Automatic annotation (TrEMBL):
Residues 90-307 form the ABC transmembrane type-1 domain. The lineage of its organism: Bacteria, Bacillati, Actinomycetota, Actinomycetes, Micrococcales. Pfam families: BPD_transp_1. It comes from the Bacteria. PANTHER family: BLL4140 PROTEIN, DIACETYLCHITOBIOSE UPTAKE SYSTEM PERMEASE PROTEIN DASB. It is a multi-pass membrane protein. The keyword Lyase does not apply. One of its GO terms (biological process) is transmembrane transport. It is found in: Cell membrane. This is Carbohydrate ABC transporter membrane protein 1, CUT1 family.
Length: 318
């Protein structure tokens, strides 16, 4: 009887070779990633290589018509490093992106919490409004915003001028760098808030109602529930959204360009996107423009790495 049971157990035990199909099945997702990786390498790899090569050359308008470009090595980067205008633009761009990204996150978080607190009708109304604002084309939205802040017929000046003691008659918002970037920040935040609000709202829907009710029974008020329960649970969503906002706001271009077309094109109104455009398309110095582009890429990777490393540490701890 013991021998029969031993034979049955040996028969029921799977052979080691059965793990081979499992290894083959695990490789299928990796194979499916190959087309996407190839598309990214072709679509983004070639422009990146071209930018790197051009940043080491004296590439101007003559090279556009076939004249060979002279190799200058790191001279373009050295010129940029010693250019005070470049560092003013970098500082202005970093300040702009950090301020707008932080304000966008705060407003988006408040709207997401509002969507969880209001009734179904109010929530649908708010969501549709956010979708309409998000879906509006950038050029059309910018045209409306420029009309709103127009110094002669702008609604903003008209409403502010109605306040006693406030004189906003023909006030030019786009001729002063401070007010120019205030307007730009309002526009960028308005265009970015819907994405943040919907992303954070999706994270808030995953917070267990039972956990919140238990915390409330233990005496935790709304502020404590938000700080010690809700925020830690949606922290990964917030970090990813904040990272994306920093990257997008650092490379903002269309809004600043259209505001400059309606106001001033002086260097004090430039961010990195418009600065690169002026170097390339304006001054026809594509070598310097490529060098600034590579610098922006390195800056973006540095900002991204800080958040990616934090996410990796959280995954290891969990």
């Amino acid at each position: 009887m013991t021998r029969i049971l031993a034979d049955d157990v040996a028969t029921a035990t799977p052979a080691p070779r059965a793990s081979a199909p499992a290894r083959r099945r695990l490789s299928v997702p990796h194979l499916l990633l190959i087309p996407a990786i190839l598309i990214l390498l072709v679509g983004m790899g070639y422009p990146l290589v071209w930018q790197i090569i051009t940043s080491t050359q004296d590439f101007g308008i003559q090279q556009q018509f076939g004249k060979p470009a002279d190799f200058v090595g790191l001279q373009n980067y050295i010129t940029l490093a010693t250019d005070p205008t470049m560092w003013q633009v970098v500082g202005r761009s970093l300040l702009f992106c950090f301020v707008t990204a932080a304000l966008t996150l705060v407003v988006g978080l408040l709207l997401a919490m509002l969507m969880t607190a209001v009734g179904r009708t109010a929530r649908l109304t708010l969501q549709i409004s956010l979708l309409l604002a998000w879906a509006m084309p950038v050029v059309a939205a910018m045209t409306v915003w420029i009309w709103l802040f127009d110094r002669r017929r702008g609604v903003v000046n008209y409403l502010l001028d109605m306040i006693p003691g406030v004189d906003m008659n023909r006030f030019s918002w786009l001729s002063n760098p401070l007010t120019f970037f205030i307007v730009a920040s309002i526009i960028v935040i308005w265009m970015s808030v819907p994405f943040v609000a919907f992303s954070v709202y999706a994270g808030l829907t995953q917070v267990s109602d039972e956990v919140l009710e238990a915390a409330q029974l233990d005496g935790a008020n709304g502020a404590k529930r938000l700080r010690y329960i809700i925020m830690p649970m949606i922290r990964p969503v917030i970090m990813i959204v904040l990272l994306l906002q920093l990257i997008w706001d650092l490379r903002v271009f269309t809004q600043i360009t259209m505001l400059q077309d309606a106001g001033s094109k002086a260097s004090e109104f430039d961010l990195l996107g418009t600065y690169i455009y002026k170097l390339g398309a304006g001054a026809q110095d594509f070598g310097m423009a490529s060098a600034v582009s590579i610098f922006v890429l390195a800056l973006t990777l540095a900002i991204s790495w800080f958040y990616v490393r934090s996410l990796l540490k959280e995954d290891e701890q969990s």
